[in-house]
Write a structure and sequence with these properties.
The complex is a heterodimer. Chain A is α/β, with parallel strands linked by helices. Chain A has helices spanning 42-46, 69-73, 129-136, 138-144, 161-168, 201-213, 224-229, 260-271, and strands spanning 30-32, 52-53, 58-60, 79-81, 96-97, 149-155, 181-183, 192-196, 219-223, 235-236, 239-240, 251-253. Chain A contains eight helices and twelve strands. The chains are: A alpha/beta, B alpha+beta. At the A-B interface, strand 6, helix 5, helix 6, strand 10 and strand 11 of A face helix 5, helix 6, helix 9, helix 10 and helix 19 of B. The structure holds iron/sulfur cluster (2 copies). One iron/sulfur cluster is lined by residues 158-159, 161-162, 196-197, 224-226, 231-232, 256-257 of chain A.
């Protein structure tokens, strides 16, 4: 194998072509063994973000911190932190899953979170024709961004964890450029706005302007528990509540922070490079 | 924590300071009351109108280092506002807490500003107005800090009668940038809040003549999340999750300060295994930050081999942390009363082996960097901070040690198991430029490797967590830890039923950010990213 300049062999990961099995300690989606569950709701009581509801048991991955408190609290050990980390979803509702990881049917559960632009406080972002147009262009977006995607990152009030994970995407190990993905300096050059954080009040205006500066068609991806729902910070006088309170989100990537592989998975989903059974498609070998 | 002192520095002052504190009530009649909280912590009450007289008298005697300043809304319980200012005196581990009560009958609560005397108090006082509406009278720059121009002027969110979730209306009042530099040839360069690259938001407004920066106005708090308000009323267990996420890059340092403060109030004594594990996790965090920062510095000068190798080493460490603890950023490793993750013998050998490899590669990276003249040339003499500036602004951490301010909490006020590893080598430089800050990091990395190895070798057996014990309502406490960016000082007031009533989180970035605009002065604009990176400060723990 070729030796690099400093004398070390290259060790770039081959995710997603090769599946990756995380180490045993890694905490993924909380999974419930229904037979052991007594319905005592200890998990729901101990969850720091109220992500869990018992009877019927379900967890909102958009709020989950993957902290393991629910598994620790369960006296019956009915909850295991699985190693599943590929959890991105196109719809906020699909992040609410049951014990096996299957999305809960929204028709049966009217209390599920409904994404709405609750903080359209500034008269900046009307539901323009362009936005409607974007929605109808979804299928064409897949075709457009299939092979190359330029990302503009935006921190809208994160704890820095998600941002540091995004920087690791450019390191020699994860190296997303091998997948045709790159980060750009200006929103005018970007196809996708990758937003971390809770969407603070102080940044809302800048976030909207960044979005408006992008050319059509454009995608928005919400990263982390904060981006999906406000996460641990929730909503307060200082804003929050997630990215979809202000911007239209196309893909949600849960995690706190999401592992780099989970980010790659979410980005591929946004690009339409996952087939219907959510496997990576490598149609375009260069 | 504070009783177990092992100070090598400044012992000669200690008896003087103690004598001075004993004599305080006699020398200064303006002191209302004196309480010795413990041997090293003394609380004095001064009435608001005497504040300046008090400080004017004591300031020439000793060096007063501002640790934190907390405002409290106590109108419901005691019919007053309270401001507590905590000082460390002359680098001894002796703390002076100055308490001021402002009667609530004043329609506008006011307090004489101490910023003209102690520039380090600047942001604390502006924040006091932002969050509580307590006016620092005579403050040289009384603009709002965390509340940008679109917040209503009557909204003080940390007051008790403000609802946590009431979202104040937007007002348009676009007058934020008042400090304009004008003159012929002065050009303004606005940058941000959204920057090129994967970094956090802040607005920098450079005034430049040609390429030279003559003034830099920075606006922060774009990521203000209202953490201190959210912590109010939370159970101490739930609060830990938020404090962990004040900043991902310093989560161990922040959470450790939280745990220590509460353990000190409750009088918990930890198992020695837990204290050793705390040292391992704290040093791992310092290590990956410093190594990552070394790589990032190369980004400031476009030295790509260094960027990539630094990023690769950081990734190896993050991956190691994930294998050991389940979280790449060490979320959840600390618990009240100990730690939440034990390291098995196989974990320890993995840790030891990985660190040995990282150490070898890091040394090679450093050699490559420092032998490259075009790199060293850019680092030398860029972004100089003078020792005087650092002292006045109360600088901490790498930035302080790079200009000769010899302070490190791990040695000066030891916590966890740090007393077991004495002497801890604290590097020091005097030139205060980017190169000095890099050299400090390099030496601290070497010391972290040594500390972790020593902790692995001598790791005692035993439990990893003990019960915290009970926290009496209305008790308060604070604790200091040394993060990769410098000293962290968190203050907590306990409410009924083991809840947090008020928290004041002061991180290293909060103290060090005012240094950056000073360091940028007289440098060229293209060097600013380099200078900024050499401080490697964080916005999220500053904005909170
Ligand atoms: S945040 Fe997630 S992992 Fe933590 S307790 Fe709640 S559901 Fe469980
Ligand atoms: S999701 Fe978690 S890691 Fe990401 S910004 Fe929010 S608190 Fe930090």
């Amino acid at each position: 194998m070729k030796r690099s300049w400093l004398g070390f062999r290259p060790f770039t990961s081959s995710y997603p072509q090769k599946k990756e099995t995380p180490a045993a300690a890694v905490r993924g989606r909380p999974a419930l063994n229904l037979e052991l569950c007594t319905g005592d709701a200890m998990c729901a009581q101990n969850c720091p973000t109220q992500a869990i509801k018992s009877s019927p048991w379900r967890v909102d991955l958009g709020k989950c911190l993957f902290c393991g408190a629910c598994a620790e609290a369960c006296p019956e050990q009915a909850i295991q932190m699985s190693s599943e980390f590929e959890l991105a979803a196109r719809y906020r509702l699909n992040l609410v899953v049951d014990g096996t990881g299957k999305p809960v049917d929204p028709l049966l559960s009217p209390e599920l979170p409904t994404p709405k632009r609750s903080r359209n406080l500034l008269p900046m972002l009307p539901e323009t024709e362009l936005e409607v147009l974007t929605a109808t262009l979804k299928s064409q977006i897949t075709a457009t961004f299939h092979r190359s995607l330029h990302i503009r990152h935006l921190d809208a009030g994160s704890c820095n964890g998600c941002d540091w994970e995004l920087t690791t995407l450019l390191n020699p190990i994860h190296d997303v450029q091998r997948l045709g993905i790159d980060f750009v300096a200006s929103p005018r050059h970007a196809d996708l706005l990758l937003v971390t954080g809770i969407m603070t009040r102080n940044l809302t205006l800048a976030a909207i302007r960044t979005y408006q500066a992008m050319s059509e068609p454009r995608l928005v991806v919400a990263v982390g528990a904060c981006g999906c729902s406000g996460g641990i910070f929730g909503a307060s006088y200082a804003g929050g509540g997630g990215i979809d309170t202000v911007l239209p989100v196309d893909v949600y990537i849960p995690g706190c922070p999401p592992r780099p592989q989970a980010l790659i998975y979410g980005l591929l989903m946004a690009m339409g490079r996952l087939n219907p059974s959510h496997e990576f498609e490598n149609k375009h070998k260069d | 924590m504070m009783n177990n002192l092992n100070i090598r520095k400044n012992n000669e002052y200690e008896s003087q300071v103690r004598q001075f504190l004993k004599d305080l009530p006699i020398t200064l009649p303006c002191i209302r009351s004196v309480v010795f909280i413990d041997a090293n912590h003394i609380q004095v009450e001064v009435i608001p109108s005497d504040i300046l007289q008090f400080y004017n008298t004591v300031k020439p005697r000793f060096l007063f280092i501002l640790l934190t300043m907390v405002a409290l809304d106590r109108r419901r319980e005691y019919a007053n506002w309270q401001v507590r200012t905590i000082w460390c005196i002359s680098e001894t581990p002796i703390f002076l807490e100055v308490v001021t009560n402002i009667d609530q009958s004043n329609t506008v609560p006011e307090l004489p500003s101490i910023t003209p005397l102690f520039p380090a108090a600047n942001w604390y006082e502006r924040e006091m107005y932002d969050f509580f509406g307590i006016v620092p009278v005579g403050h040289p720059d009384p603009r709002r800090l965390a509340m940008h121009y679109h917040w209503p002027n009557t909204n003080f969110p940390l007051r008790q009668d403000e609802n946590r979730s009431t979202f104040p209306p937007y007002i348009s009042n676009d007058e934020y940038f008042q400090n304009r530099t004008t003159g012929s040839g002065v050009m303004e360069i606005p940058v941000g809040p959204i920057h090129a690259g994967i970094i956090e938001p802040a607005h920098f407004r450079f005034s430049a003549v040609g390429e030279t920066i003559v003034n830099l106005e920075a606006t922060f708090f774009y990521t203000h999340k209202g953490i201190e308000k959210q912590l109010e009323g939370l159970s101490i267990e739930q609060a830990r999750y938020i404090i962990e996420r004040t900043c991902a890059a310093c989560t161990v340092a922040n959470t450790l300060a939280y745990c220590q403060a509460l353990e000190q109030i409750a009088g918990t004594s930890l198992s020695s295994r837990a204290t050793f594990l705390r040292v391992i996790f704290a040093e791992l965090e310092r290590l990956y930050n410093h190594i990552g920062d070394t790589g990032n510095l190369c980004a400031g000068v476009g030295f790509h081999v260094g960027i990539q190798e630094g990023a690769a080493l950081k990734e190896i460490l993050l991956d190691l942390q994930e294998r050991l603890t389940g979280s790449r950023y060490l979320f959840g490793v600390l618990r009240l009363g100990g730690v939440g993750v034990d390291l098995s013998p196989s974990d320890l050998s993995l840790l030891h082996k990985t660190l040995a490899e990282v150490r070898k590669r890091y040394q090679r990276l450093i050699k490559t960097m420092l032998l490259n003249t075009s790199v060293v040339d850019r680092f030398t003499g860029a972004g100089i901070i003078f020792q005087r500036t650092a002292r006045e602004l109360g600088a901490v951490g790498v930035a302080a040690r790079a200009c000769g301010v010899d302070r490190d909490v791990r040695r000066d006020i030891p916590y966890a198991a740090y007393t077991q590893f004495n002497p801890i080598a604290i590097p020091l430089r005097i030139s205060g430029d980017v190169l000095a800050r890099l050299e400090i990091r390099i030496e601290e990395v070497a010391e972290s490797f040594r500390l972790i190895d020593a902790a692995i070798q001598h790791l005692p057996d035993g439990a990893i967590q003990v019960p915290l014990g009970s926290l009496p309502a209305a008790s308060s406490g604070f604790s200091l830890t040394e993060s990769a960016r410098g000293a962290v000082c968190h203050w907590f007031l306990i409410g009924p039923n083991q809840t947090i009533k008020r928290a004041r989180l002061r991180t290293a970035s909060y103290v060090n950010w005012p240094l950056v605009p000073r360091a940028a002065l007289n440098n060229i604009v293209p060097d600013f990213p380099l200078i900024n990176k050499s401080f490697e400060l964080c916005y999220s723990c500053l904005d909170r």
